[in-house]
Amino acid sequence: MPPRPDPLQAPWPQRVVAAVHSRTRGGRRWRSVRRLTAAALIVLAGALAMAPPPADGRSPGLVLLRDLPLGTTLTEADVRLAAVADPPDGVLVDPATAVGQVLGSAARRGEVLTDRRLTSALWDPGDGRVAVPVRPADAGAIALLAPGSVVAVVAVDEAGAARTLTDRAVVLALPAPAQGQQPLVVLAVPLDQADAVAAAGLTDALAFRSAR
């Protein structure tokens, strides 16, 4: 008759099962069951700790660090690389591709940057508008403007008569003036008023005031 296998030499799962189904209800047997169960839980916890974390579908992408108005020229302090869940098409991943570019619309902190949110020359004023560059007669007034400001454009002819060309222009950009040239302001103007603003810049003095 072959010798009975030593239960203490069996693998721990079999030892747990054997202990649980044993007809012996003595205290020593139940202490053994508790010890084996505790050992099993320790082994299971270790296995879970060693398992790689599940993939969550995140990918790198640039996000904004603060709220920014339309027309902002991005700097390194405005963006950071983060793990983005379900990133949109065209997401930017290299800060060098965003720094120096201009926001084509206002943006919130934490928003993911895509290629369509930026433009190097800011010729993307939005639906129903076109970009119109103008030079105001009072260059000092430019210091009161900022990208995203909404202003009215007023034309003043040689006789001093003033007329409002639009009260819905949005400041897109304030380019640095070339040496010896008057400062320029790039406006996003409603399409039906853009021609009047552009033409008045050739014949009249232009001024800005706050929009109503």
What is the string of SSEs from the N terminus onward?
HHEEEEEEEEHE
Number of strands: 9
Radius of gyration: 35 Å
State the separation between the terminal residues, measured CA to CA. 105 Å
Number of domains: 3
Secondary structure category: alpha+beta
Average predicted confidence as pLDDT: 79
- Sheet-strand content, in percent, reads 25-35%
The largest sheet, given as strand count, sense and whether it forms a barrel, is: 5 strands, antiparallel
Fraction of residues in helices?
A: 10-25%
Unreliably modeled segments:
none
Please list the strands of the largest sheet in the order they lie side by side: 5-8-7-6-9
Large-scale geometry: rod-shaped
Task: Describe the fold and architecture.
There is one protein chain. The chain contains three helices and nine strands, in the order ααββββββββαβ. It has 212 residues and is an alpha+beta fold. Strand 6 and strand 7 form a beta hairpin. The longest helix has 24 residues. InterPro entries: SAF. It comes from Nakamurella flavida. This is SAF domain-containing protein.
From the structure above, extract its key features.
about 210 residues; alpha+beta; 3 domains; 5-stranded antiparallel sheet; rod-shaped
Helix and strand topology:
Elements lengths: L11 H10 L5 H24 L7 E7 L14 E7 L16 E2 L14 E2 L9 E6 L15 E7 L5 E12 L11 E6 H13 L1 E6 L2
Antiparallel strand pairs: 1-2, 3-4, 5-8, 6-7, 6-9, 7-8
Helix pairs in contact: 1-2
What's this entry about, in short?
With 212 residues, this protein is of the alpha+beta class. It is built from three helices and nine strands; from the N terminus they run ααββββββββαβ.
